[in-house]
Amino acid sequence: MGIDGLDGRLLELLAHEPRIGVLEASRRLGVARGTAQARLDRLKSNGVIRGFGPEVDPAAIGYPVTAFATLEIKQGQGADVRAHLATVPEVLELHTTTGSGDMLCRLVARSNADLQRVIDLVVGFAGIVRASTAIVMENPVPLRIVPLVRQASREG
Amino acid sequence: MGIDGLDGRLLELLAHEPRIGVLEASRRLGVARGTAQARLDRLKSNGVIRGFGPEVDPAAIGYPVTAFATLEIKQGQGADVRAHLATVPEVLELHTTTGSGDMLCRLVARSNADLQRVIDLVVGFAGIVRASTAIVMENPVPLRIVPLVRQASREG
DNA sequence: CTCCCACTGCGCAGACTGCCTAGTGAATAG
DNA sequence: CTATTCACTAGGCAGTCTGCGCAGTGGGAG
């Protein structure tokens, strides 16, 4: 169920040069085209590769402010709150976590002032007891997977 | 600097069917191929589209546990801590946030037990004063961008 | 020893990409 | 009012890649 060295190198290659084709990838990896194709197909059907969606930078479309909000939810209101948050476009991501029935969500906004509007939108809902927000200043490590892939392929 | 309706529809299309080609996209959008190509090129050089990296599911490569850790940093140790965390493969993402010199990072681990090892790795570093961790149980809203794109293209 | 599987190396038809040209309509500047 | 600019349409061309299939090879498992 893990990934081997070849899978790892293929993933790294795709992460670094996403628009590369199967043929070019096979050349870089030093294997036959069929092999690269088979590996790629397997990674996709395995669920290792979820997809190749475009990575859109929220800042570039007018939402330069990112924040994380920790929400405390009233007992039994979880489903309602999830449904509510799913309707807010500025909520990019939502997790339920351990702890006192908490949720953690990632928000974006057009400005610090606009963030207030977004937060009001988010917490202006019956099931939410309390919210604490942390505004992101810097992002020293952007979302990455290559180091993990490398480790996984070494160990697996 | 924003995106218009056509950009928005193109982004949605790409998000939904990432491996679609320019030609097919132009057909679906009802525009000429050159137009679709020009829009796509512009979105890329604008920085709106950062890339088309494969989305790898950590769970599928043996890291099914996700957690968020809030770190409190000793004054002046920020740079060292960032450098330290950047070397840990299980740290998928790191943000510095407002508040008491805090950082927020996303971690993955092979199991709940393994998470202890990862946390020790992360916090076993001089500059970190305190860490509080929340284990993710569910992910009702996975990272998404389409709703925001739709809103941005309506307003822009 | 035999079977099975992954990999290699090859070829084919179809489709797509990058690049170019010419013409149109709308908005803008003079 | 006219000239210019810009985005878009529509088409063409050469080169390349993809999806697919086929035969052959080598190593591991039963």
TrEMBL record, chains A, B:
Residues 3-64 form the HTH asnC-type domain. SUPFAM superfamilies: Dimeric alpha+beta barrel, Winged helix' DNA-binding domain. PROSITE patterns: HTH_ASNC_2 (PS50956). InterPro entries: AsnC-type_HTH_dom (IPR000485), Dimeric_a/b-barrel (IPR011008), Tscrpt_reg_AsnC-like (IPR019888), Tscrpt_reg_AsnC/Lrp_C (IPR019887), WH-like_DNA-bd_sf (IPR036388), WH_DNA-bd_sf (IPR036390). It comes from the Bacteria. The keyword Signal does not apply. It holds the Pfam family HTH_24. Keywords: DNA-binding, Transcription, Transcription regulation. This is Lrp/AsnC family transcriptional regulator. It comes from Streptomyces iconiensis. The lineage of its organism: Bacteria, Bacillati, Actinomycetota, Actinomycetes, Kitasatosporales.
